[in-house]
Amino acid sequence: MSAVISVAFQACQIFGIFLIVSLGLSIIYGVLGVMNLAHGELMAIGAYMVAMAVNAGLPLVAGIVLATVLVGLMGLVLDRAIMRRLYRRPTDAIVVTFGISLVVTQAMLLIFGSAQNSLISTPGGEVTVAGASIPTYRLVVTLVGVLAAYGLYALFQRTRLGTNIRAVSSDQDTAGCFGVDTRATFTVAFVLGSALAGLAGALVAPTVSLVPTLGQGFVVYAFVIVVVAGERVFQGTVLASAVYAVLNAVISYQFGSFYGLLALLGVTLVLIRFLPGGFSSLLRRPRVVAAL
Amino acid sequence: MRRVRSSMSTAVGITTALLLAACGNGSTDAASSSTINIGQLEDQSGNLSLVGLQKYHAAQLAVDHLNAAGGLLGKKINLVAPDTQSDNTKMQQLARELVIKDKVPVIFGAQTSAEREAIRPIIDQYKQLYFYTNQYEGGVCDSNTFTTGAVPEQQVATLIPYLMQHFGKRVYVIAADYNFGHLTSDWVKAITQASGGSIVGQEFVPLTQNEFSSSIARIKAAQPDILIPLLVGNDQSSFFPQWASSGIKNLPMGSTVIVAQGYEHLRFQPPAAANIYVPTNFIKELGDYVPSSKTFVDAFMKKFPNDPYIDEEAESEYDAIMMWAEAVKKAGTTDQAKVKEILAGGISYNSPSGTVTIDPKTHAAVRDIYLAHTTETQAIEFPVMWKAVQPNWLSAVAGCDLTTKPDQTQYTPTAQMPAKVTQELTAIPVVKAGS
């Protein structure tokens, strides 16, 4: 019994952080059609900012909020400076984001050195149920992930902005014909995606060694999730994250974390072959509300 | 026909010119100029730079000390140390450059066993004198290679019996997933079983992994008495803060690399790196106990005041360079064959951490080993030490004898072999100098 609860706890932990990272990447991919290869670096920047904020005396929560906002602003700067020239060129944009990731990693290396020596510790104790325990902080991260997802859902379904995002990600040209400002929507999507990456990085900061490449492990999972999520940015990503979190937790517990990753990649290959539309094709057809 | 021939001759002409230009540039004839170049291959950037930079600085310190004492054979020593960037391919490329272009009389370096094995074929191809200066999983029996880092006979055969005597018989191993992790794990398994214990679980983790929640869940489920983390690199060190917040207190950990290599006790808040036992040839804190270590530490911190630590590998690097210099003085030349002969004859050197002697049969170092232990507050204490621990599994059991039989192999332990390593290992208490 305690093994089942332990695996359930693992799945929760993984789901929480996967969700935030994947949603950020998914929004950018869905709207701009760009696989943002700098997503891991944005996470790393978020983590470093939280570490600096906490070492300067701010409480952890304030640090996380600050990091999220700042990375979002960084996304805005990147969009204005670079990405706006690439709206109609998604393949070129992928190469450019790769370049951005290289520049950011090396810049962080030059500024901060190869590893931070003073890290912030994980607050809180642990919760124990029937012999299996999970650090309280990890549960909080999962909660934040779920709340962020709910917030995004509300944004997507209930606001004009969200409708525009869904319309542009579904069919860019037709949305433009209906009067949606596609360029502004692109910017908003990129900023939102960046802010989510910053939030993810800020949340993991107390648990990992601060190196410029800390985001890369998470981003591998996020890529895979986005690929199998399909065209429905929100529902597809949430469903894919949940399935993958459970799968990873079960296999990793049984055989080790290496096989957990292997299982995810294997399942992805199978899914791409037999379910090309991804998890989205398992859901009902979306209704796009015309933005009149 | 004429057009083809003229473009062919142009091509030949250009190629020859380029070759001449390349040969003319940058090659330093080490024998005739007024400096001696020595080569070093260490990771000054990337995932492994945490340790690589310490070794690089130790080499610079050694060169400074040698030059301050008048250099070698009347010439100044110059350190040629390109950055291998934690990349095995770069390692190979730069090794070739040092051997072929710079023609250095000696190469020091490589951190991970993967790096060492990547360049050892190049070393052997050119019969280059090479010092491997890192602790590792043991077994290298190579006519051209000398090792000053600690080996399992010195780290695992001392650690496991000590821990099992004090804490229990159930051992769990979590190791980096490459040759070092696997082979050291084999050693831990063999010595554990030979000491009457059992391995209750084992996991190999990719070097880029920084999320350990499932690994930690598996460790808890196995309920070990002792945990042996053999984790390498910046990413894998994330294990410790995650372990600290996982709810288990006071499970003793033992390792051959944690604390003594990546100074986790200074990088993480307690209790992430508390209660860890590491048998090591040297760490910075040894300066409080051994006067020769203190001299070394003071000199290092004077030259590099901003460096966070001096680990076991940095001291091994320093020892290697100083020993090579001794051999060169004895040989009267930097000629590699002659220096190798002197080294293989069993040269001794008074290192910062005690006497280091090269064992002629294995080219490995006989050295004193200190058991370091991190307290609850992650301060360092040294409960016991072992004097002059021999790397004798390689010679006695694996059959390596470089005095009679040239070799270029790495021998690996099977379940039986390390159990036959029975040298008397007496732990003696460590007394603070001046007390």
CATH fold title of chain A: ABC transporter involved in vitamin B12 uptake, BtuC
Regarding CATH, which class of chain A? Mainly Alpha
- Count of helical stretches of chain B: 14
Rg over CA atoms of chain A:
19 Å
Q: Structural class of the secondary elements of chain A?
A: mainly alpha
Give start-end ranges of low-pLDDT stretches of chain B: 21-31
Biggest interface pair, counts: A-B, 46 and 39 residues
What is the CATH third-level topology name of the domain at 35-150 and 292-364 and 394-410 in chain B? Rossmann fold
On the 0 to 100 scale, the average pLDDT of chain B is 87
Helix content of chain B: 40-55%
Q: What are the low-pLDDT stretches of chain A, counting only 5+ consecutive residues below 50?
A: none
CATH class (first level) name of the domain at 35-150 and 292-364 and 394-410 in chain B: Alpha Beta
Distance between the termini of chain B: 91 Å
Order of helices and strands of chain A: HHHHEEHHHHHHH
What oligomeric assembly is this protein in? heterodimer
Strand order of the largest sheet of chain A: 1-2
Q: Major beta sheet of chain B, specifics?
A: 8 strands, mixed
